[in-house]
Design goal:
The protein is mainly α. Helix content is 62%, strand content 1%.
Length: 554
């Protein structure tokens, strides 16, 4: 790996305020990693990886774990990317910053279990260095434990202004993702204080940080207050399981968005908004607020037409940028297009102001529009996930349990519904979307349960089995062209959905019992046998008439 080029690429990542705009650069780094002349080493994870210069590894890790990404929606993807780099770039336990980097990565991916199991049980918190304690405080905030974060920060003295800014950003995002927007605004007020900012920091830096933090408060709160439905798990924040739609805060959040958008337009110029990624983050926030309002039956001045106009404007700006700027060869922007299109499609999923058939038509039109006007762009499964969710029969959504948010993602399919022909989606676009998803199956396997369900509803049982088998054989982490799908796919949530869908037909139930049940048992330390997963397996036992396995589960 060329050190000078790698350090320049790391600097490009560090200068961005939008994670989606960094993915092309990161993919270049990943490709450079595979130099055939590089030294191969055995990692502690028993993986053979390419050893790179330590200075390059640290520069890339520091860029990915930048404070600018703390409150952004792409924070968890950044953490997963750092985790991949951490293992592949040869960062060993004798590195002086090994513990601090580990803690920071756990915080970025909001992985409290990993933080407790792998780190806090092995180390004595009292023996941590001040920097490691600071990283632990930030990790608690990112894992939605703001009070623990505050307590630990109170024990630290002589924090630099940069560390204080980062701590306020982390607490701001933590409270927002927990739908505690009053506390989040208090942290934002602290962040706006002139006392935090040194003379050598430009007004642009402060403006970008404050405005992006304000957008993220509205965005995260809107996400948390949008009712969860079957197969919308990956749309929501992790805080959604702790929130309730009965808070009555939706109207306040809608007004907060209007005030935020007005303030940004009045105090910043177009070029400023583009450099600070305010225009794209504001669009993502706009989509989330529209979804929250329409799903909850609230009046809003936002319309789908306005979202489409804004989306097309962002696409035109990107095409113009990549065709005129010198960095176009390094930044194609395809991941950026995917993220913006995906945000619009999720807003379309939740709205009740468009008929289901018209939703699919509009989604397909927007996908084809992006593929036509953005050079090199082709929608993959990650982008099409919301479009596929639109094909889920409404009866499944209405079967979602009401009440606490943690139950809204559940669904049960009755035999009567399975036998009803009108239950199946008959849209002409369903087959086209399914074929496109099948061609791109290797990008992200989190959508496999959804694809299995759609195949079953169309009567394609053989294809449903093929999709399930491919998903089970896939690696945990994948990096695919034009997308960074670094989420661990084999989580309890993934198995809950997959097994329940497989219980809908006998060959699928047989596969769940013979293959999936054994896989879950063999990985019991990573995959918890939740009550919902156990119930899904019991449904499979009933469909398969397997009494022995049912007794084992009980």
């Amino acid at each position: 790996m060329d050190q000078e080029v790698a350090l320049s690429l790391a600097q490009l990542i560090e200068n961005h305020y939008n994670w989606d705009e960094c993915l092309d650069v990161l993919n270049l780094l990943l490709e450079m990693r595979g130099d055939p002349g590089a030294q191969k080493v055995q990692q502690p994870t028993r993986r053979i990886s390419t050893m790179v210069d330590h200075k390059v590894a640290r520069a890339v890790l520091d860029a990915i774990l930048s404070p600018r990404f703390i409150g952004l929606p792409g924070r968890r993807l950044a953490g997963q990317a750092a985790l991949q780099m951490f293992t592949d770039f040869g960062v060993f336990q004798n590195d002086p910053d090994y513990v601090a980097l580990n803690i920071r990565i756990c915080g970025f991916i909001s992985d409290q279990n990993n933080l407790d199991r792998r780190l806090l049980k092995r180390i004595n918190v009292a023996n941590l260095t001040p920097r490691e304690k600071f990283e632990l405080a930030l990790a608690h905030a990112r894992c939605l434990q703001p009070e623990q974060s505050r307590e630990l920060l109170a024990t630290l003295s002589d924090l630099t202004k940069e560390q204080r800014i980062e701590s306020h950003m982390a607490l701001c995002a933590s409270f927002a993702e927990s739908a505690k927007h009053s506390e989040a605004w208090e942290q934002l007020n602290e962040l706006e204080s002139e006392m935090l900012w040194t003379a050598d920091q430009t007004a642009f830096d402060k403006s970008a940080v404050v405005h992006n933090s304000r957008i993220n408060i509205v965005f995260a709160t809107a996400m948390a207050l949008t009712p969860r439905q079957p197969f919308t798990y990956y749309y929501h924040t992790i805080a959604s399981t702790h929130c309730s739609p009965r808070f009555g805060k939706q109207v306040d959040v809608s007004q907060m968005f209007i005030d935020t958008a007005t303030s940004i337009r009045e105090t910043t110029g177009h070029e400023h908004r583009r450099r600070a990624s305010l225009h794209s983050n504001l669009f993502r926030c706009m989509c989330a607020v529209y979804a929250m309002c329409t799903e909850n039956g609230l009046k809003t001045t936002l319309t789908l037409s306005a979202l489409e106009t804004h989306l097309h404007s962002l696409q035109r700006d990107l095409v113009h940028k990549t065709s005129t700027e010198a960095s176009a060869s390094m930044h194609s922007g395809l991941d950026y297009v995917s993220s913006m299109l995906r945000s619009y499609l999720w807003a379309l999923v939740f709205t009740d102001r468009v008929r289901p058939m018209d939703k699919s038509t509009r989604a397909w039109d927007e996908i084809k529009h992006a593929e036509k006007y953005v050079p090199g762009f082709k929608a993959n499964v990650v982008v099409m996930e919301p479009a596929l969710v639109m094909l889920v029969p409404r009866s499944i959504w209405t079967s979602g349990l009401r009440g606490a948010f943690k139950d809204n993602a559940a669904f049960m399919i009755s035999d009567e519904a399975m036998c009803a022909m009108h239950w199946r989606p008959t849209f002409a676009l369903s087959e086209q979307m399914a074929q496109r998803a099948h061609a791109e199956w290797g990008v992200d396997h989190r959508v496999a349960p959804l694809r299995v369900l759609l195949a079953v509803t169309q009567g394609w049982n053989r294809q449903a089995l093929e999709i399930a088998k491919q998903s089970l054989l896939a690696p945990h982490l994948r990096i695919a062209p034009n997308t960074l799908a670094l989420e661990g796919t084999r989580t309890s949530k993934y198995f809950e959905q997959l097994v329940l869908v497989l219980s809908m037909f006998k060959p699928g139930a047989d596969l769940a019992i013979s293959k999936v049940h054994a896989l879950v048992q063999s990985q019991f330390r990573k995959i918890k046998m939740t009550e919902r997963l156990a119930i899904a397996f019991l449904y499979c036992c009933i469909r398969s008439r397997n009494e022995a396995t049912a007794r084992d589960i009980l």
